[in-house]
């Protein structure tokens, strides 16, 4: 199956990055969010990222212009999935919201269209059951920032066909990414592991063991992590981390996944990390 056009649902941290790498791969992209302001923010992020690449002479200004010209923005869900070959969904990590979206687009899209969710760890099998195409439903888990990170974790749902896996593996390499294949389990391979580390770092910080700076420095210089777990949590978005940990806790029932109260309070206060300017660190002066 040839993939020429993709619909990207969500223009947030992940959605705009996914739209960018898809357009860089020469695909026509339709990016959808619920309001124009989110689409504007998404396009600004894409322009900033491409501007950096031009400055570093990785691409020319003409390349950047062509990439941007391949991306169309819309707030209309059905318009976003019209005549596309693959839908990549990157809306918030909330099962009911994703199910509602998939139920709607399943009725509108022809049978051959593949649905790929960028969920960090929700069940691909459960999401696929909201559609009449569980064999053409798959997890396509990108990493943040999408244009920089090399990996896509491909998640095989209970009914995902080998053909679908093949199409998505090819698409991943066209986007310049390496892929790994994992079976559908809560948190897959990557979110389950990093989630536990971030959770433990937040517990340690809440217990007053050390400052955020020192916890992060300990992991950077002592364990050779490129970024400390609290800084990474801010970068991912604390609301997303909370959803991931709640899902892991509910699915496995193991207290090691229990989200810290501090994380809940920070999310309630709107301190979601870098995207709102405040998290474990202050980004308002950047
Ligand atoms: N942030 C990360 O590091 C990261 C990494 C891998 C995967 N993910 C996953 O990617 C998904 C998106 O996360 P994000 O960090 O980009 O979140 P985000 O909050 O930055 O962006 C989500 C966007 O979706 C929009 N949205 C809300 N409802 C929508 C709908 N019904 N249709 C279309 N758009 C809608 C919001 O307006 C927002 O712009 C989540 O499932 C998350 O778990 C996130």
Quick take:
With 286 residues, this protein is an alpha/beta fold.
Please render the helix and strand layout as text.
Elements: E1 5-9, H1 13-24, E2 28-32, H2 36-55, H3 61-69, E3 71-74, H4 77-81, E4 86-89, H5 95-108, E5 114-117, H6 124-128, E6 137-142, E7 151-156, H7 162-174, E8 178-183, H8 190-206, H9 212-223, H10 229-236, H11 238-252, H12 261-268
Parallel strand pairs: 1-2, 1-4, 2-3, 4-5, 5-6, 7-8
Antiparallel strand pairs: 6-7
Helix pairs in contact: 1-2, 8-10, 8-11
The structure holds nicotinamide-adenine-dinucleotide.
The site of nicotinamide-adenine-dinucleotide has 28 residues, from α1, α5 and β6.
Under the CATH scheme, the architecture of the largest domain is 3-Layer(aba) Sandwich
Shape: globular
How many strands in all? 8
CATH superfamily of the largest domain: NAD(P)-binding Rossmann-like Domain
Q: Tell me the number of structural domains.
A: 2
Listed once per kind, the bound small molecules are: nicotinamide-adenine-dinucleotide
Q: List the total number of helices.
A: 12
Describe the main β-sheet briefly.
8 strands, mixed
Q: Strand order of the main beta sheet, please? A: 3-2-1-4-5-6-7-8
Q: What proportion of the residues form beta strands (DSSP E)?
A: 5-15%
Order of helices and strands: EHEHHEHEHEHEEHEHHHHH
> For this structure, what is the CATH class of the largest domain?
Alpha Beta
Terminal Cα span: 45 Å
């Amino acid at each position: 199956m040839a993939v020429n056009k993709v619909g990207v649902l969500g223009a947030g941290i992940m959605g705009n990055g996914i739209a960018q790498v898809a357009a860089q791969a020469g695909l026509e992209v339709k990016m959808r969010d619920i309001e124009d302001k989110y689409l504007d923010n998404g396009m600004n992020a894409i322009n900033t990222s491409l501007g950096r690449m031009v400055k570093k002479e990785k691409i020319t200004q003409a390349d950047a212009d062509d990439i941007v010209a391949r991306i169309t923005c819309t707030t209309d869900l059905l318009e976003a999935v019209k005549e596309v070959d693959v839908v990549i969904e990157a809306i918030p990590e909330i099962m009911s919201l994703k199910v509602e979206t998939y139920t709607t687009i399943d009725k509108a899209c022809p049978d051959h269209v593949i649905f790929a969710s960028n969920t960090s760890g929700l069940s691909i099998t459960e999401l696929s059951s909201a559609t009449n195409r569980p064999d053409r439903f798959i997890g396509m888990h990108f990493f943040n920032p999408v244009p920089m990170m090399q990996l896509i974790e491909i998640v095989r749902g209970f009914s995902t066909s080998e053909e679908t896996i093949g199409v998505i593996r090819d698409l991943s390499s066209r986007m310049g990414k390496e892929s790994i294949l994992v079976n559908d389990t809560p948190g897959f391979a990557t979110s389950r592991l990093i989630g536990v580390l971030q959770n433990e770092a937040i517990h340690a910080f809440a217990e007053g063991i050390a400052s955020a700076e020192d916890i992060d420095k300990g992991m950077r210089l002592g364990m050779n992590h490129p970024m400390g777990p609290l800084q990474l949590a801010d970068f991912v978005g604390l609301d997303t981390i909370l959803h991931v940990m709640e899902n892991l806790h509910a699915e496995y029932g193991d207290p090691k996944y229990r989200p810290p109260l501090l994380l809940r309070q920070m999310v309630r206060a709107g301190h979601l990390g870098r995207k709102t300017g405040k998290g474990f660190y202050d980004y308002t002066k950047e």
